[in-house]
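Re: your question about BMC domain-containing protein

S., sorry for the slow reply, the queue was backed up all week. Below is exactly what I fed in.
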Amino acid sequence: MIALGLIETVGYTTAVSAADAAVKAANVEIIGLEKVIGVNGYVGVTIQLTGDVAAVTSAVEAGKEQAEKIGEIISTEVIARAHSDVNEKLLSKFTLKNDSEPEKTKPKKRGKKAENENQEESGETVNAAKTTSSPKKQNKKNNDEKKA
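Result:
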């Protein structure tokens, strides 16, 4: 049976701490996040979790305990089998979207030769033969020539 767990906190840091403890405590998934301004003059954040009833119950309890160490808990709730209207009409407005996985990038190589290789791989123009000195040395050289 799928359950819905809610942990409502005051403040984002408290919510993140609660969510971290919850997902570490049991096999649950964070499905949503809701931020509301105005709870006691602060930001109220509700974390939504899902999983089987026992896991969600355990996760909500662990999240609540951790959040109380950091900040303030407004409320917690475990709904054993949320009605489809709750999922479709309420929770869908706050569900986290997983657009796509981040693109994997190759680690950059170090050193002058590697710098040129990294630029070539990224499509940047590479100046293979450097004929002038650094800008600081060039400016000093120009100033010395003007003085002479």
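The CA atoms of residues 72 and 106 lie 42 Å apart. The helical segments are 12-25, 53-70, 84-90, 112-122, 135-147.

Happy to talk it through on Thursday.
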